[in-house]
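User: I'll paste a sequence; please echo it back and then give the predicted structure.

Assistant: Echoing your sequence first, then the prediction.
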Amino acid sequence: CTPALIAEYRDRLLRENIGTKEAPRHRSPATANRFLSALSKAFSDAVREWHWLHDNPLRRVAKEQESPGRVRYLSDDERKALLTTCKKSELPELYLIVLFAITTGMRRGELLGLRWPDVDLERRLIVLHKTKNNERRSVPIVADVTALLREHAKVRRLDSDLLFPGNKGRPVEIDRAWYAALDAAKVKDFRFHDLRHSCA
């Protein structure tokens, strides 16, 4: 496998229409780079671990230029409006979940996957055992969220140790309530992940 062949397939990935004929869509440079990274890891193992190759051909294949990631965060007025609508949500946990995200910067999956054994209310600390980077880390909890968590703990479900349990042992589903809260607060062009930016 040569660098030229890998570059050819990289370009094919970028040219391929993954949409429809009426609405063509193509992979982003970032997606192509993720493919290259995964392939590079396999070649690195083949070189170092298995001694199948002398060199990793991906070292001589250029990565695509990626566009800078978007940064969207809530203004003070948007934050107040969103928290107000979350308090009135049909999903009782939504306010606490959103406040948690704003004050900790935790990712959605980390937050919804939280379990009570990972929460230390006395020390106001959460331990995340499984993160995106596969690293264990501790997250401090602000006093207001700690108080709400103590109230939330009074009505814990017996069939799950999740902080925010849904059906069949899964975390609660928040999408419908989240989008309704955004709509009611008139917050436009905002994703749950952007709460991390508001925290920062």
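The two ends are 44 Å apart (CA to CA). Strands lie at 119-120, 125-128, 137-140.
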